[in-house]
Amino acid sequence: xxxxxxSGGGLVQAGxxxxxxxxxxxxxxxxxxxxxxxxAPGKQRELVAVINSGGTTNYADSVKGRFTIxxxxxxxxKYLIMNSLKPExxxxxxxxxxxxxxxxxxxxxxxxxxTQVTVSS
Length: 121
Hints:
The chain is built from no helices and 11 strands.
C-alpha cells in the first residue's frame, strides 16, 4: 500500500502563487516518477508536470515558465510551485507516484485524493 497525502490547494487571485505538496509513504522501494495532474470540470485529466528518478522534468505547454516541480527524494515528497496563476488553472490537482514495492520490480501508478485549486479573475 502506498499513501499519498496532498496539501496546499486553495483560493487565490489571478497572478498569485500557490505551492502544492505531496508526501508519499508506505511500501515504497523505488520511485520511477512523480507527477502532478489536474482535472477541470467537464474536462479530461491532464498532465501538468512530472519529474523522473533522474531529475528530468517535463511540463505541459500551458504551464511552462510558470510552474516548477521539485522533489525531496529522502522524504519521498514532491512539490509544485505555481506562479502567475490564471483562472484557467482552476482544477482539482492530483498527485501521482509510479513506484515499486519492496521485493518487486513491478512499478504501479498511485494517486492522491486530489486538492482543489481555484483561481479567481
